[in-house]
Structures are given as C-alpha cells and as structure tokens.
Specification:
- The complex is a heterodimer of chains A (113) and B (113).
- Chain A is an all-beta fold.
- Chain A is built from no helices and ten strands.
- Chain A is globular, with a radius of gyration of 14 Å.
- The two termini of chain A are 21 Å apart.
- In chain B, the strands form two sheets. In chain B, strands 2, 4, 5, 6, 9, 10 and 11 form a seven-stranded mixed β-sheet that branches.
- The radius of gyration of chain B is 13 Å and the shape is globular.
- The chains are: A mainly beta (113), B mainly beta (113).
- The interface between A and B is medium-sized, with 29 and 29 residues.
C-alpha cells in the first residue's frame, strides 16, 4: 500500500524496548488530546486520549503523559512489537474550537526485530 | 466503536474531472467529518457534514470545490470538483465528537494526473 508520512521524523527502536513519542502543542487553551496510530494504507486508529485535568493516563501497553506547563504530550509504548510500526499522530481540541481536531505532524515508529 | 467504510478505496482521475467519495457508518451518528491528508503530511479538517443542513467548512475549504451531502445519520459524500494534481491526497471521513473520541474510515487515496 501507499506510505503515509514519507518525510516524517522517524523513531527506530529495537523490538522489546520501550518507545517514547513526543508531541508539542502551542495552544494553551487546548484541553483534550488524542493519540492516533496510522498503519500504511489505513485510516488513523484511536489509541488513547487524555483531558487536561489529568497528567497521566494508562492503557494496555501505552501511557500518555501531559505536561501543561511546557505544552508537551508524550506517548510511551512498553515492550514495543513489530506490529507497533506505524505513523503516530497527536491531536488536540479546545472547548471553544467546536469540532476541530488539530493534528500534529506525526512521527514514524520503526521497530527492528 | 463504529465501523466505517469508504468508497472508492482509491482512484486515479484526470485533471478537470470530479470524484464523489462515499462514507457509510454501521450505526447512526450525529457528527461526521471529512479530512484531507496530503502526501507526507498530517490530517486537516475540511468540513463537518451536518444532517439536514449545509456542511460547515474550515478555513481554506469552500463548498464549490468540496460539496458535501449528508442525507441521513449513517451516510455522507464528499465530492472533489474540477480536480488538479494538487488535490492528490488521502480523503478520510470520521465520526464522533471533537470533545470525544473520533473514529476514522480507511480513507480514499486519490491521484490526479
């Protein structure tokens, strides 16, 4: 299938290691954040979300950390697997922005066996 | 989560023609959105497809270029009109609210020659 994000920054990790994908946002009014995973030839898939009243949220093998002071969001993937190879996008929304989700530029994660 | 399908999955079109993309959801949803993902880029919201009224377009997108229909709560179409090579992108529909999880369809990969 066609590749998405041919010119995106790339994070290369060894299978079994932990991965950390970072995202910076600029709007201090943003109060809802989502991480999406997009595999080649597919639409974005929801991974985990977090609201601004929290600074950490955990899912299955994933953790999202939110630092509102420096406007930084990270996605941590534990024990990275080859199936985690994809492009990862963060998205943000503000309460007064209606339905608009603003997406970050994306990071390509490559898992080496 | 809703199951979302799109037709066609991909197409190659000639300059100056128009293509209509369909989005079908397996359950009734209030909010439906159309996004564009240009090669190597992140996602940009084109418009919100409103049932029973005109779509709400984001800055930089106009109805004449991207007419949208939403005849019911499970279906929407996006037309890319008078296409040029710059319209080559992946077009994605999504459902859900921006204040809540948004789920994406698989995308339609459009190439304009």
């Amino acid at each position: 299938g066609e590749s998405v994000g041919l010119h995106l920054p790339t994070l290369s990790v060894q299978e079994g290691d932990n991965s950390i994908i970072n995202c910076a946002y600029s709007n201090s009014a943003s109060d809802y954040f989502i991480w999406y995973k997009q595999e080649s030839g597919k639409g974005p898939q929801f991974i985990i979300d977090i609201r601004s009243n929290m600074d950490k949220r955990q899912g299955q093998r994933v953790t999202v950390l939110l630092n509102k002071t420096v406007k930084h969001l990270s996605l941590q993937i534990a024990a990275t697997q080859p199936g985690d190879s994809a492009v990862y996008f963060c998205a943000e929304n503000q309460e007064n922005a209606g339905n608009m989700l603003t997406f970050g530029g994306g990071t390509r994660l490559m898992v080496k066996p | 989560s809703a199951v979302i399908s799109q037709k066609p999955s991909r197409d190659i079109c000639q300059r100056g023609t128009s293509l209509t993309i369909q989005c079908q959801v397996d359950s009734q949803v209030t909010m439906m959105f159309w996004y564009r993902q240009q090669p190597g880029q992140s996602l940009t919201l084109i418009a919100t497809a409103n049932q029973g009224s005109e779509a709400t377009y984001e800055s930089g997108f106009v109805i004449d270029k991207f007419p949208i229909s939403r005849p019911n709560l499970t279906f929407s179409t996006l037309t890319v009109s008078n296409m040029s090579p710059e319209d080559s992108s992946i077009y994605l529909c999504s459902v859900g609210g921006a204040r809540d999880t948004q789920y994406f369809g698989p995308g339609t990969r459009l190439t304009v020659l």
